[in-house]
Amino acid sequence: MNQRVRVTSPQTRLALRRRSDATRRLNRLAGQPQVDRSAIDLADAERALHRQRRLAVRTAAALLCALAALLTAAVLTPGRLGWAVLFFAPYPVLLALAAFHVRRAERIESEYGEGD
Amino acid sequence: MLGLAAISLILASSVAIGVWGVRAARSTPDFLVASRSIVPGWNALAIAGEYVSAASVLGLAGLLVKNGVGAMWYAVGFTAGYVLVAALAAGPMRRSGAYTVPDFAEYRLGSPRIRRMCGLVVLVIMLLYLLPQFKAAGVVLELVSGIPYWIGVVGAGLVVSSTIAVGGMRSATYVQAFHYLVKLAFIAGPAVFLIALAGRDRREAALDLSADPDWSRPLLDLDGSGHPLLATISVLVATTLGAMGLPHVVMRFHTVAGARAARRVAVSVIVLLSMFYLWPIVYGLLGRVTTPEPEETDVVPLLVPGAILPGTAGAVLTALVAAGAFAAFLSTSSGLLLALAGGLSHDLFGGSLSRLRLGVVVGTALAVALSLPAADVDINVLVGWAFAVAASTFCPLLTLGIWWRGLTAAGATAGLLVGACTSTGAALASVVLDLEPGVVSVLLAQPALWTVPLAFLVMAAASRPGDVPDWAGEAVLRLHVPGRYSSGDTGAIPRARRGQRAPQGSLERVDASGETG
């Protein structure tokens, strides 16, 4: 007779359920136990982010320039040479851009921590 | 009949590899990303196998015959996208520990609502991409065996959905890697024979520039709009930026061991794609000579061998090319269906494995039903739209989410809405309105040139600095720092800090770093 019952509005129940859903999903995403946050140097992480961002912006800009140059070259080169520029030239350029970026990005990473 | 036999052989070996690859897909991670145990080399092959779709195997050569050599800008853009994937997305996305783009959005922005919205965008992109794949299966089967188009499409749907529903991503990886090799061998091999056997006259005619200056100009003109440079640039923007936002490509990077491996896989994919994109040129240039006015542009590669070599030799080569094209359909559609099923069940309804399997079946049914009336639309047009929508939605979301802590859930929502509505709206309008060829028609048919900057702008402008939650900075940093901070998977950000924007959160962070950031 004296049992206590928790009374909540339907809105609150909905909100609670939604929150617990989100938590479950996040935990499932995590897949690993919580990393100890005090182990990280946030200032270092900040510097790593800035350097990676600068590198990424540079690579994107280089890609833009490369595509623009290829387009111009293909249009301006007369005859079959223009075809060759369109058919064959882009791929080595793209590969070089990507490979260069990955090398630089890995070097930055190795300065700021072990592992992946 | 020879063609049908070759296709059956491909199908049988795909199923065999799929069965071999199944290691009892039990949980959702197993099913979606093969529990992250797939070796990088296989992964690069699988990504390339999934990415080289019917649009590349069939569509490019057809477009080259129809619109001119400028069609190869599609291939350049498809490949250039991977430079951006390597530079902007692959590593950080892998570190985020999220399985799909909607997962990432929820991790980064902490809002279940934005997850559902991303799920919807995934549906739109994947359906736009699946349609042409099923169309390709239908026309290939129709050409080699005389099976009516609709039976081919429905049969292809049954085959793909049943293999996926049984095996999931693990089997898909090996099957797709196998399909890349099949595609390369069955497109490149016959191409070499065709060059050798075409005869001097045909070879010279294929390289003849003088016939049609509009056709031989290395720019992509859309239906004689008169603005080829504008159209070329817009196609390049869509394909380059779109590759980064394709949900099934992003999902693939979660099946490698870590962030570094993910980046390197992206570079390997560029190599594999460059090796493939040399061959559609051969079919396109020879097709221009042998079948200048094809009824159905998308089957040009299947018509060329028969036109050059009548008799058994031609039939054998046609069968090989048909098998390669069918492999393209199989691998791309299975990758797309996985992402679509993920979107349907995992993101929209928060589901279990059985729901995921149901998602595959529902997704196939949708795609099959939609591709029946789409028989007349060029493959590359549809694929181009899928890229344009991806470029206008997920590309800004991932770029800003990964590199800018100021992105908020409200900003992302606004940007996604604007990007999705303008890009799909423009594509629809270009079909429905039947405009005069001109600047407007180009910008509607290839909307990426204006919709992508618009989406970026809206996303950035609608993210008010006051709304940036306290944990956003940490969520971004986790994506970029290797080592203990984010070994393999990042842990979930604690619930307590996720829910509030209390000032003590930032104090706590300064303490944790031991110094002021």
UniProtKB/TrEMBL annotation, chain A:
UniProt keyword annotations, A-Z: Membrane, Transmembrane, Transmembrane helix
Tagged with keyword Membrane: yes
Protein's UniProt name: DUF3040 domain-containing protein
Segments crossing the lipid bilayer: 55-75, 81-100
Automatic annotation (TrEMBL), chain B:
Sequence ranges of Basic and acidic residues compositional bias: 508-517
Keywords noted in UniProt: Cell membrane, Membrane, Symport, Transmembrane, Transmembrane helix, Transport
Membrane topology annotation: Multi-pass membrane protein
Primary site of residence: membrane
Xref: PROSITE patterns: NA_SOLUT_SYMP_3
Origin superkingdom: Bacteria
UniProt keyword Ion transport, yes or no: no
Subcellular location: Cell membrane
Cited Pfam families: SSF
Keyword Membrane in record: yes
Bilayer-spanning residue ranges: 71-93, 114-132, 147-168, 180-199, 229-253, 265-286, 319-344, 356-375, 381-404, 411-433, 439-462
Positions of the UniProt region annotated as Disordered: 488-517
Family affiliation: Belongs to the sodium:solute symporter (SSF) (TC 2.A.21) family.
Protein name: Cation acetate symporter
